[in-house]
Structures are given as structure tokens and as C-alpha cells.
Amino acid sequence: MISEVFDKLQSLQEILSKKCEIEEEVSEIPKLINTKLELLDRLKKSYGDKNKIHGDIKNRIKDYKQRMAEAEREREKYEQQMDKIKTQREYEALDKQIKDITAKEQDFRKEIQKLENQLTEIATTLGKENLMIQKQEDEVKSEQVRVKQEIKEKQKLLKNLEKEETKITPGLDEDILFKFERIIRSKAGIGIVAIRNGICTGCNIILTPQFVNNVKLGDGIMFCPECSRILFFPVSEKTDEDELADNEEEDDNEENTNDSEIDSDSDDESDE
């Protein structure tokens, strides 16, 4: 009977809806890990960039120290020549060279000090970021364990639902089952709905009286022309024609009752 098919589909709808919900949850789980992995990648990239800058600054400091050492040696050489100076002109020229090289030394020293301060700051930042990376790696590992367990539990639930599904599906048309599952997935878990007052309760479209009558006759599975859901006619639901027929039947019963009372009164008068 078609009513049995509808009962099976309604039971199946609950199972398929739960399956879709769990499958959606399973698909969302890796996204949580991906978010943490993306953060970890950004931290590592930032650490790598700063570490490169740290290395560049160390090389620059090394270069400045070498150049400053050369300047110091050059200044010392000029200072040693002072004892051999014989004229004022030679003295002034050599004194200028010493002052120039001394100024260069001071510039090198200032630059080295500036770079060493930067190096200290970056080293401090690298230390903090390294701790953040270690913490994030620990969180990722912990999350991966948790996610693995959660997926395992949800897959167990899916298997249980599939077992329940196999108990219901025998006897149902495979083509209908295929369509029904697609509807469930695309319609938020609702694939079979009732008709109320000539309206599809799934999408609220007004159905033609002929279409409603065809669903009511139950000759086969009918799909809503708008939302594609399977439609069924509740046993408690009455169409306007049903109401009219009931009213006519009530009127006929009242007329029969009145006729009986009149006949009874006539019999009583005849007896008198």
C-alpha cells in the first residue's frame, strides 16, 4: 500500500537527515585543524623572515666592525707619522687625515651600536615567536588527536544509521530512493511533506485541485512541482469536496430524522 511506502519514507527521512548532519559535521572538522595549521604557518613564516633579518644584521655588524678595525689601524698609522712631521703644512694635512678617519670610526661605532640594539630587539621577538610556535604545534598535535577520535565516533554513528537504513529500504523503488536522498541533501533534511489545505507545507506553493486529488488517491509517488519534495495526504486532512460531502450527508440525516418524527406524529393521531 502507498501508505506503507510513505511511512517508510518518513522513517527513512529521519535517518537520512541525521546522516547528512553528521557527514556535514565530519566535513567541517578538518577546517578547525586547517585554521590552526594556517596560523602555525604564518608564525613560522614570520619567524623565518625575522630570522633572516637577524642574520643580515649580524653580517652588517661584522662588516662594520671590520671596516672600523681598518680605520683604527689607519688612524694609528697616521698618528705614528706625527713624530716625523717637520713642517706646519705637513702637520695640518696629517692632522686632517687623522680627524677624518677618527670621525669615520665614530660613525662606524654608532652604526654598530644601532644595529646591535636592533639585533637585541629582534632576538627578543624571535624568542617570543619561537615559544608561540611551540605552543601552536602542541595545540595542533592535541587537536589532531581529538579530531581523529571525534571522526571515529561519528563514523561509528554513520554505520549504525546505515544499518537502520538497510532495515527500511527493502521493497522501496531504487529510483525513488535515489531521488529521495538527493532531495534530503538539498532541502535541509526534509524530503517528504504533507499537503495542508491544498498547499505544499514544504514550500507553501498552492497546488491545483486535480494535483491534490491525485495525491489523495495514492496511485503513486507525487513530487511537488516547485520544491520537488515527495507529497502525501494526511489521513486527518479533508478537502473542500470532503467537507461539502459531509455537510450534505448531515443535511440528509437531519431530513430523514425530521421525516421520521412527522410520520411518528401522524401514526399517533391515527391511533387516537
Task: Provide an overview of this structure.
The protein has 272 residues and is mostly helical. It has a domain at 24-168: Helix Hairpins (Orthogonal Bundle), CATH 1.10.287. The protein is 79% helix and 4% strand. The protein has five helices and four strands. It has helices at 2-81, 88-168, 174-186, 209-217, 240-271; strands at 192-196, 199-200, 222-223, 230-232. The chain has a four-stranded mixed beta sheet with strand order 2-1-4-3. Strand 1 (192-196) and strand 2 form a beta hairpin. The longest helix has 81 residues, at 88-168. The two termini are 60 Å apart.
Quick recap:
This protein is 79% helix and 4% strand. By secondary structure, it is mainly α. It has a 4-stranded mixed sheet with strand order 2-1-4-3.
List keywords for this structure.
272 residues, mainly alpha, single chain, Helix Hairpins
The largest beta-sheet arranges its strands as 2-1-4-3
What average pLDDT do the residues reach?
86
What percent of the residues sit in helical stretches (DSSP H or I)?
over 70%
The DSSP helix count reads 5
Gross morphology = rod-shaped
CATH class term of the domain at 24-168? Mainly Alpha
CATH topology of the domain at 24-168: Helix Hairpins
Low-confidence stretches: 239-247
* Rg value: 46 Å
CATH architecture of the domain at 24-168: Orthogonal Bundle
Number of strands: 4
The chain-level structural class is: mainly alpha
Question: How are helices and strands ordered from N to C?
Answer: HHHEEHEEH
Q: What oligomeric state best describes the polypeptide chains here?
A: single chain
Q: Please describe the biggest sheet, giving its number of strands, its sense, and whether it closes into a barrel.
A: 4 strands, mixed
